[in-house]
Amino acid sequence: MPPVKKQVKKRAPPKHKLPDPLKPGEVLTDSMKRQWKVGGAVGQGGFGLLYAASPNGPGTVGPNAEYVIKIEPHDNGPLFSEINFYLRTAKQDMIRDWMKAKKMKHLGVPRYIGSGSHEGKMRLRFMVMERFGENLHKMFESAGKVFTRRDVAMLAIRLLHTLEYLHEHQFVHADIKGSNLLLGFTKDTQDQVYLVDYGLAYRYLPDSGHRDYKEDPRKAHDGTPEFTSSDAHKGVPAARRGDIEILGYVLLQWLCGQLPWEDNLANCDYLRDQKIKYLKNIPSLLKACFPEGDCPDEMRKYLDYTSGLVLNSSRYQERPDYNYLRGLFTSALKKAGWKDDGKFDF
Which residues form a coiled coil (predicted)? Predict the structure, then answer.
């Protein structure tokens, strides 16, 4: 009788409860003793709520308040992880110093404003954030599920700058997608793009050194199914190359409208196998995405680079060549005669 194959027991997804709603006008005090007044609700995630907010003062919080407060029950974990990321990586002076050293006018990393705990009907954890505008997934859908080649090139350059900053500060994002990319809210920032939601952000380079490559089926398939990395599908700790791979799938979807494995998003093993199959044969991936053969050359080169980085386990700890990847899109803009004026077509 053939041996029975042992089934790997996958860990159950964590269950997070939503917090009790806050009342407009309620005041929260952060860890630096600054007070913030809460306005109306402006959004809801899988585990928390978002409220418009402003520094405490007379009057109500108006609809155009430039801050939001994100809250969750204190027993939940995602916002705790996100606050930890911001404290280590996104303090305002850190971002300012990086931009000055790189001679940049903008970096798509939200600034840490404040955080704390609040005692009410239930104990809450909260974080004060800059307020942002529409997300790129909604813009993508409004544009007929395709962005122009110019827009994709401009977005790629900006997002590679953002990822380089995160990676150089020991973190990976691990969940890059249009719904986590937000335009600025104010008049001065409405053409800027920010990468948000660091609930899955992972410190790949702790004090002890880079994490080791180790597959763990119990931790497999973290992230957003259609975009998540091959490493994530195998339960390997997130690393820099995973962010590069995920970004590649996002850029590809923006250009062609739909990824070839989006027909079966409920089957994560299928998604893993499809991605690995196509990474081993980039021409077949491009044929599936661009039947007319009109794939932009910069996208092909980006995916060729990604394939080499991802398929070789010995390159797991390798620092991606951000300059090379940005150069692909910079050259494409120049060759086409397009100017990166910071104004998108969508």
Answer: none
Query: What kind of fold does domain 133-336 have according to CATH?
Result: Transferase(Phosphotransferase); domain 1 (1.10.510)
Q: How far apart are CA 71 and CA 40, in angstroms?
A: 13
Contact between residue 239 and residue 216 where contact means Cβ atoms under 8 Å apart = no
The C-alpha R_g of the chain, in whole angstroms, comes to: 21
What are 12-30's pLDDT values in tens digits? 455 567 788 899 999 999 9
Alpha helices in 91-183 (DSSP H): 92-102, 136-142, 149-168
Residue 8 has pLDDT above 60, yes or no: no
Round to whole Å and give the CA distance between 278 and 257. 17
> pTM above the 0.85 mark?
yes
pLDDT digits (tens, 9 = 90+) for 251-295: 999 999 999 999 999 999 999 999 999 999 999 999 999 999 999
- Spell 64-99 as b/e; 16+ CB within 10 A means b: ebebbbbbbbbebebbbebbebbeebbeeebbeebb
Residues 6+ apart with CB under 8 A from 129: 67, 68, 69, 70, 110, 113
C-alpha angle 116/121/127, rounded to 5°?
A: 20
At the fourth CATH level, which superfamily is domain 27-130?
Phosphorylase Kinase; domain 1 (3.30.200.20)
**Would you say 70 is a known binding-site residue?**
yes
